[in-house]
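Methods, example record. To illustrate the input and output format used throughout this study, we show the complete record for Terminal oxidase subunit II. The sequence lines were provided to the predictor; the line carrying structure tokens was produced by it.
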Amino acid sequence: MTIDLPVIWFAIIVFATLMYIVMDGFDLGVGILFPFIRDKHDRDVMVNSVAPVWDGNETWLVLGGAGLFGAFPLAYAVITDALTIPLVVMLLGLIFRGVAFEFRFKATESHRAFWDKSFIVGSILATFAQGVCGGGGGERFSGGRANL
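The corresponding predicted structure is encoded as:
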């Protein structure tokens, strides 16, 4: 019994996606819980708990997307065409969150609130867009405004 290359790539893509969900879910959760924590020290503890690993979590997303593009280009074309809007919103949220995460450490006290809010908004945008992408996979989502 042999295992075909598409089966191996499917397993790699599923593994990368699950690793992203598990690992980055914690980071996104920290960003979503951020508005409910008012104490500066507690916020610093929250951010410092994810600081060592948060950069690498998006690597799993890149591996899954690149694997889908390389192994299943037709599926990649159909999925990205149908989910262009939520995927762009997700990427903008992840970029905004990453920039806010880095600048939060370097900001003065007067600018830290802005970067905290940016971190919150980026986390919520990314999470919402991922939910739209996940929910759109099981339905007849075609990417139009009427489908949102």
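Annotations derived from this record:
Helices lie at 5-33, 40-50, 54-71, 73-82, 84-106, 109-137.
The mean pLDDT is 89.
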